[in-house]
Amino acid sequence: MMKRAQQSKPRRDLRREILSFIARWYQAERAYPTIREIQKGLKISSPSVVNYHLRCLEEEGLILRIGRRSRGIRLRRWPDSLTMDMEENTISIPLLGSIAAGDPIPDPSSHPLAWIRIPQRWLVDGNGLFALRVQGNSMVDAMVGDGDLIIVKTIPQVEEGEMAVIWLADRHETTLKRVYREGDRIRLQPAHPAMPPMYVPAEVVQIQGKVLHVLRNLNGIPPLDG
Question: Considering only 58-62, 187-191, 197-201, which range has the smallest mean pLDDT?
Answer without folding.
Answer: 58-62
